[in-house]
Amino acid sequence: MKILVINPNSTASMTAQIDASARRCAFATTQIEAVNPYGTPASIEGHADEALAVPAMLDLIRDGEARGIDAYVIACFDDPGLAAAREIARGPVIGICQAAVQVATTIATRFSIVTTLPRSVPIIEDLVEAYGVGHRCRNVRAVDMPVLALESDPITAEARLVREIEAARDIDGAEAVVLGCAGMSDLCERLQFRTGVPVIDGVSAAVKLAEGLVGGGYATSKIGAYDYPRVKSGPVLAETA
Q: Transmembrane stretches, by residue range (predicted)?
């Protein structure tokens, strides 16, 4: 099967890291292709960044459909454009936030999320509520570092992640922690080893869910809300006198 992993921002080094994380967990027979669009924000940190990134991301999915891609992973924890992507795609489209919280609620009764900036906290809280697991999420914590600092200052980023994961365990009573950014995916195993807490990376969770859905023969329903977008004619211009 072929899975297209899309990093909606334009930072190629982050895409390479996401690609490595996806390949590490995928079956040997799964073909992983990780891509990012050009001209989108360098990182997704808020609603405006999401909106600017979605059109180019949808273009990549349209291209994937023409090339016979079986499933898609949107590798941004805000799950930007997820519903729109599902309208365009035949196969499953998995957002890494939705996949991660599904794993969290399967392996633990309570979990917390650790993300990058405080401004992302309400966005993630709303997503968790929308996915129906708000009562299982103890807290959404932030390390107060920009997304790109995960790469430019990895030592500080890891230290702050360890601190917040331990606080989630000791203060929140969380039994598992979800990493709230695709740029954290390569730290998952090390953070779990350092804290003793089950740590869930949305990239690997989404890849494994995509493999399972494709392997089970499941595709996106085209009855109702996720039906293909209707083809519309251009605007009719009013005649002038």
A: none
Round to whole Å and give the CA distance between 148 and 145.
8
- CB burial string 170-194: b at 16+ within 10 A, e below: eebebbbbbbbbbbbbbbbeebbeb
Q: Please answer whether residues 10 and 40 qualify as being in contact, where contact means their C-beta atoms are separated by less than 8 angstroms.
A: yes
Check: CB of residue 228 under 8 Å from CB of residue 222. yes
Order of all β-strands in the sheet with 93-95: 31-35, 2-6, 71-74, 93-95
Spatial separation of the C-alpha atoms in residues 146 and 157, rounded to whole Å: 10
CA atoms within 13 A on the CB side of 46: 6
Cβ(78)–Cβ(127) below 8 Å = yes
What is the chain's length? 241
Distance CA 199, CA 103 (A): 10
Strand order in the sheet with 137-142: 137-142, 111-115, 176-179, 199-201
| Global pTM value | 0.93
Q: At what angle do helices 188-195 and 154-167 cross, to 10 degrees?
A: 50
Using 50, 70 and 90 to split pLDDT, how confident is the model at 151? Answer: confident
Q: For a pLDDT cut of 70, what percent of the chain falls above it? A: 98
- Domains within the chain, CATH numbers bracketed: 2-95+204-215 (3.40.50.12500), 97-202 (3.40.50.12500)
Task: Give the CA count within 13 Å in the CB-facing half-sphere of 121.
Answer: 13
What are the tens digits of pLDDT across the range 163-208?
999 999 999 999 999 999 999 998 999 999 999 999 999 999 999 9
